[in-house]
Design brief:
The structure is a homodimer of 159-residue chains. With 159 residues, chain A is mainly α. The first copy, chain A, is built from seven helices and two strands. In chain A, strands 1-2 form a two-stranded antiparallel ribbon. In chain A, helix 3 crosses helix 5. The longest helix of chain A is centred in the first third of the chain and has 25 residues. Chain B binds a DNA duplex (30 and 30 nucleotides) through helix 5.
DNA sequence: ATACAATTAATGTAACAACAATTAATACGC
DNA sequence: GCGTATTAATTGTTGTTACATTAATTGTAT
């Protein structure tokens, strides 16, 4: 098992909190890379998987591009293109929205639901790596992440 | 202050550990995006900053491309091109290594050290957002991140 | 009703990342 | 010493991201 220091070959850190910041970035990169490789087996990217999950969540109700974007982990402007890709694979359908013609009604297809079904079991086994940590500790862990996100964003904007 | 659930508009989570996994990814995305915007003021990307930090660490000794890559948070094969960019900006120099002519001796320049100096103060103020959490808690926080990284990587490879 | 602002989705673009392939130099086995 | 394997750095390619812009539709104030 490799510590942060071993992984980035750095022996000294200025403080425990600086170490924590680096550790989050490194850990997320690792998670992301692992996810990338994992989802490739299903010919999906992590972002595409995220979109399908969101659509399964609202199913059978449709979802607009904007709602997808708001629910995504990565809030960039690629939801439209991600939907393109998934539509080409037949995993979702896109049709104009009657009520507001600016919007698009996006629905997950049977094939989309099926692929999520295939992914569920192996993916859950990956997510369960944290079972060895107690819920109480994880709750605090999540709290700290929430703090970091909010304060860091503010700090970066302030500078 | 926004919780994970508020940020991705999801009210229910399957478990505290699934929530933690999502939270790490979201938090890292936020940090990365904030860093992106922050470093743009200095005409640098977060990765370029990372390279300069590594070079300041070994300074005045030179560093090879491979050592840079090993120390980077993102272990991809772009170190060479990052070095290109930084050389073009005059922030580092590149010269063939005498002992092993496959390698390149990379050194940070005065201008490179200067820009790091300019960045140090505002960046440290950003990193200090975690001062409100005790060192003891942060130590455990770092431990949990180490566990996640190692176990997740293994789990993804096993599937 | 009409002009103007706001919202939604799609696209153009430049830069960047992932991965493979290439080139050059060195190490190693025989 | 010679051929092969390994290592270091670079480059090519393909796809993606970030950001800005555009186009179409709807909301709103007068």
């Amino acid at each position: 098992m490799l510590s942060l220091g071993e992984e980035i070959k750095q022996t000294k850190f200025k403080s425990e909190h600086q170490k924590a910041m680096l550790n989050i970035l490194l850990t997320a990169n690792t998670l992301y890379a692992s996810n990338n490789r994992f989802f490739k087996k299903f010919d999906l990217s992590p972002e595409q998987y995220n979109v399908l999950r969101i659509l399964r969540g609202t199913h059978p109700k449709p979802c607009s591009v904007l709602s997808i974007q708001e629910r995504m982990l990565d809030k960039m402007s690629n939801a439209s293109r991600l939907v393109d890709k998934l539509e080409a694979k037949g995993l979702l359908t896109r049709k104009p929205c009657k009520e507001d013609r600016r919007q698009v009604d996006i629905n997950i297809t049977k094939a989309g639901l099926q692929i999520l079904d295939d992914i569920d079991v192996p993916f859950e086994s990956m997510e369960s790596v944290l079972e060895c940590v107690s819920d109480k500790e994880l709750a605090r862990f999540n709290e700290i992440l929430d703090i970091i996100r909010n304060k860091y964003r503010d700090a970066a904007n302030a500078v």
